[in-house]
Design brief:
There is one protein chain. The chain has 259 residues and is mostly helical. It folds into two domains: 1-67, no CATH class; 76-257, no CATH class. It has ten helices and two strands, in the order αββααααααααα. It has helices at residues 2-24, 54-75, 78-92, 100-114, 116-131, 137-154, 158-167, 181-220, 228-242, 245-257, and strands at 25-28, 40-43. The chain has a two-stranded antiparallel sheet. The protein is elongated and about 75 Å long. The two termini are 38 Å apart. The relative contact order is 0.09.
């Protein structure tokens, strides 16, 4: 279903581009009889002010919508939040509670909350000047990408960035500005995965201790036929609620991303 939707969006973008190019094609009349020449076409992809023609803007916007899920996962804090909350759900052992839709929804809005400074910076430095005509499309895109690069760089380990830089056969960059965005993104994702797994392991530890204690007590009492999960689950939920666990987990996540 997802692939069909993506294919439909890309097909629509292609049709818009083709239709727009047909609309922007200018045909010059045939030269007088007896002179060499033929029908000549010229395609104008950019305006006089350095911006793209409206049809290409629509096509790029549709392409951006199709790539939005990948951008959300690979260039924002969404991946870290989702993985940590998934670890918490598994550590509690509640199986299907809370539902996956709730976890994803909470992760999405926490991502928007933690990314709000970056979004505000992009709005002030790229969108507003572009609307006022001070920046062209390309310049506004570069300013927006620079804000995203600074966010990713602040949460990327030097070791992970060094790993991907060493895999590139080009010359070694002299500064961070020379590092390609396509090199920075996988390094950022690798650092986010490492951080998320560390936080998930720390969340798992107290719940594992509860499971071990409950299993040991049941075996000592000779109640080997009673599943330890039936006893440990309500105890874990009670302790998690009494410790205000959701507040602690969410505040730790937000503070780790707002540095």
């Amino acid at each position: 279903m997802i692939y069909r939707m993506a294919g439909a969006i890309l097909l629509g973008a292609l049709l818009v581009v083709v239709g727009g190019l047909i609309g922007t094609v200018g045909a010059e009349p045939l030269p007088p009889t007896g002179s060499a020449g033929g029908l000549q076409f010229s395609v104008d992809l950019g305006g006089a002010d350095g911006n793209l023609v409206p049809v290409l803007k629509i096509a790029l916007f549709l392409l951006f919508l199709s790539l939005l899920p990948a951008i959300l996962i690979s260039m924002t804090s969404f991946m870290r939040i989702l993985i940590v909350l998934a670890f918490l759900k598994q550590a509690l052992g509640t199986q299907t509670l809370p539902p996956t839709q709730v976890i994803v929804g909470l992760s999405l809005f926490l991502c928007l909350f933690t990314m709000s400074p970056v979004i505000g910076e992009i709005h002030q430095q790229a969108f507003v000047p572009h609307q006022a005509g001070e920046l062209t499309d390309a310049e506004a895109f570069e300013v927006a990408m620079e804000s995203m690069r600074h966010f990713m760089a602040s949460h990327t380990r030097p070791e992970d960035l060094e790993l991907f830089v060493s895999m590139v056969h080009d010359e070694r960059p002299d500064s961070f500005e020379d590092v390609s965005t396509f090199t920075l993104i996988p390094a950022f994702m690798l650092s986010e995965l490492r951080t998320a797994f560390i936080m998930g392991a720390l969340i798992f530890l107290p719940f594992i201790i509860i499971d071990i204690v409950v299993a040991s007590v049941l075996m000592a009492m000779g109640m080997m036929m009673v599943p330890p999960v039936m006893v440990s689950l309500p105890i874990k939920l009670l302790l998690f609620v009494l410790a205000d666990g959701w507040n602690l987990v969410v505040s730790s996540l937000v503070r780790s991303l707002m540095i």
